[in-house]
Amino acid sequence: MPFLDHLEELRWRVLWSLAALVVATGIGFALVHYFGLELLIRPVRPFLAGDQLVFFNPATPFFITLKLGLLVGILLAFPIVLYQVWAFFSPALEPREKKIIVPSLYFGLALFTAGVAMAYFWVLPLALRFLMGFQQAFLEPAIEVGEYLGFVVRLLLAFGLVFELPVVIMILSALGLVTPRFLREKRRHAIFLIVVLASLLTPGDIASTFLMIAPMIVLYEVSIVISSVIQRRREEPLRPSSEPPPGTVEAGP
Predict the structure, then answer these.
(1) Four-point Cα dihedral 9, 15, 19, 22, nearest 10
(2) In this structure, are residues 195 and 213 in contact, taking their beta carbons and an 8 Å threshold?
């Protein structure tokens, strides 16, 4: 297409993405208002002296709901925004790259959901049990809702994002930017970075840190296998065929 037609298409893609974000944010606000807070607060209820979290500013409940609604809206609108980005850039990709990138996007959604579920059902209860177990004889918990929800959301998003490692490797391998040999040679460096990253992203207790380190190392090894498969598929068209081309007659003895 001419350059101006590309700009026009980009404008419509951006408008559709913004419209999807506005609608999804409205849905997210309703979900948070009626269901979301209870779902996020439930893990900490056994550790509270009362039954509710506290807040110190009259506007806090509204802005908490607004922020969470925006976050949920971004997550809900992300597939539509991603489709618009894909529709704009996909004509520039080769068919073999499309065959790898498209499944990796669905794979990434499943991995993100698995990471968030693991953080919510396993890591968050362990972290709360560890952190709330200190100085119970002298301190009574009065947890502020904004601080607590920030802690929970950061933990859930951290696990969801780090579980995207195989998807990143798949896309980089499809584009020829990463090879299995490179990943194997940098395994020790990768493990060191994984330990540092897990220590920074988790609350600080050993259990939750290990629960992030172990899956990330497994996912890194899985990424090496995926990269090997992608590299073999990339090299298949380049291998000479042992069969003669059609229409040729083999010479006699």
Answers:
(1) 140
(2) yes
Burial profile 69-98: b = 16 or more Cβ within 10 angstroms, e = fewer: bbbbbeebbbebbebbeeeeeeeebeeebe
CB atoms within 10 A of CB 20: 19
Tens of pLDDT, residue by residue over 186-204, are 999 999 999 999 888 888 7
Query: How distant is the alpha carbon of residue 225 from its chain centre?
Result: 20
> Do residues 209 and 199 touch, judged by C-beta distance below 8 A?
yes
Count of CB atoms situated within 10 Å of the CB of 252: 4
Name 92's Cβ contacts closer than 8 Å, sequence gap at least 6.
none
Angle at which helix 206-235 crosses helix 187-201, to 10 degrees, equals 140
Cα-based angle 13, 95, 173 (whole degrees, multiple of 5): 95
What residue type is 127 in one-letter code?
Answer: A
Put simply, whether the predicted model's pTM sits higher than 0.85 gets the answer: no
Q: Which amino acid is at 67?
A: K
Distance CA 213, CA 197 (A): 9
Q: Where are the domains of the chain?
A: 1-92, 94-135+143-235
String of DSSP letters for 91-104: GGS-HHHHHHHHHH
Instruction: Tokens for 14, please give them.
Output: 């951006």
Q: Note the pLDDT tens digit of each residue in 161-170.
A: 999 888 888 8
Q: For the chain, what's the residue count?
A: 253
